[in-house]
Amino acid sequence: MDLDLTGKVAVVTGAGKGIGLATTKALVDEGAHVVAGSRTTENLDGLDGVTPLAVDLATPEGPERLVRAAIDERGRLDVLVNNVGAVRIRLEGFLGTSDDEFEWAMEMNFMIALRTTRAALAAMVEQGSGAIVNVASVNAFFQPDAGTIDYGAAKAALVNLTKSLSQEFGPKGIRVNAVSPGPVGTDLWLGEHGVAETVGAATGKDPDEVREAVTAGIATGRFTTPEEVATLITLLASDRLGNVTGANYVIDGGLIKTT
After folding, report:
1. What is the pLDDT of residues 233-256, one digit of tens each?
2. How far does CA 46 lie from the centroid of its chain?
C-alpha cells in the first residue's frame, strides 16, 4: 500500500537508535525526508533521505533548533514523531523517589515532546496540515508500580496532551495520535543498565531470567520489535488514516488483557 508520504518532511526525535532509528528508516522507505534529531548521529550519518542533527533535546532550545533545521532546509514540516524517552527503575519506591527524579522523568518523557510539538505546530498551522505521533507506553495506564512511578506519570501526561491537542488542532487540519508499546527489544529494556539488568541486579536474577518472566505474561511470548512499532507510527503519520486523531494505539503482544 502506498502511504502517500513521498515528498513529505518529517522530524523524528531520539532517532539514533531503537524505535527512533526504525521509524526514521520506515518513513524514508515510504518516500519521506527525515530530519533526525539525536545526541549522537553515527547510526544516521550517510543514510539516504535523512538529515542527521546532533542535538541535546533536553535543553530548552534543543527542540526549537531541531524543528527550525527541518523548516529551513525543506521549507515545510508534515510529520513529527516525538520518540525521545527514558526510564530509570526506582528500586526504593515512591518514598525513595525524589522531586529531582520525578523532574528528570517529566523532562525526558513529557517536556521534550511538549517543546518540540509547540515548535512544530506553528509551521503546521500555517500550512493547514500535519501529523504528530507521540510514543507513550503501556506504563501510562497498565499495572503502574513503584518501580516506574515517575516514568508512568510522565507517559500518562503525554497521552493526555495527545488527546487535548487533537481536539484543539483537529479543526486546523492537524492530527495528533499516540502509540503505547509494551516491552520492546531496545536498549531501554535489554541494553546495559536497562530494565532487565537493573531489576536482575536488585533481585539476584540474571537479566535473561527477568526477560523470560516478562515474556511469560505476553500472549505472543516475545518482546515487540522496534520495526513493528515503527510500522504503526508510519501508518499514523500517513493521510491514509486521515480521520484518526486523539487515539492511543497499544502494541504489546497481548500483554494487556482488558479492553
Report:
1. 999 999 999 999 999 999 999 998
2. 23
Q: So what's the pLDDT on residue 205?
A: 74
Please answer whether residues 8 and 133 qualify as being in contact, where contact means their C-beta atoms are separated by less than 8 angstroms: no
| Candidates 110, 151, 189, 223; catalytic one | 151
Separation of alpha carbons 245 and 8, rounded Å: 19
CA distance 142 to 139: 5
Residue whose C-alpha cell is 517536556: 111
What is the pLDDT, as a whole number, of residue 201? Answer: 75
Model pTM? Answer: 0.93
249 has catalytic annotation: no
Supply the Cα-derived Rg of the chain in whole angstroms. Answer: 18
How many Cα atoms are found within 13 Å in the side-chain-facing hemisphere of 96? 9
126: Cβ contacts below 8 Å, ≥ 6 apart:
none
